[in-house]
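Field reference: sequence -> structure
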Amino acid sequence: QVQLVESGGGLVQSGGSLTLSCAASGDIDSIGVMGWHRQAPGKQRELVATFTSGGNTKYADSVKGRFTISRENAKNTGYLQMNSLKPEDTAVYYCTMLIKDRTEASFSRYWGQGTQVTVSS
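Structure field:
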C-alpha cells in the first residue's frame, strides 16, 4: 500500500526558512506530478506548488520567488523549500503525488498526513 509521510514543519520567525519533505513508500511503479497544498484555519485548501515528472514547476502567486519545489525521483521524495516566510504562510501543508503502484493499471492521487507550519511575527 502506498503511503506519503511528511516531515519538516514547525515554528519559525517571520523571514525564516523551513524545508518540508514528503517521502512515498510502497510498491511504486512510477510517480507523476507532485504537489504541495496548504490550508489555513478557516480557509479553503489552496495549491502552493507543483512539479511534473517532465520537470515543469508552477507556483501560487503568493509564494513565487520565496518557495521552491523539488523532487528526488530515486528516493520517491518531494521537497518544498520555503524562504522569507511570512505570518500569512501559517497553515497545515499537505503533499500530494500521482502514483501508479505495481498492482494497479492507472495512477491514483495520494495525500500526506499534513504538517503544521507556523510563522510568528
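Note: The first strand starts at residue 3 and ends at 7.
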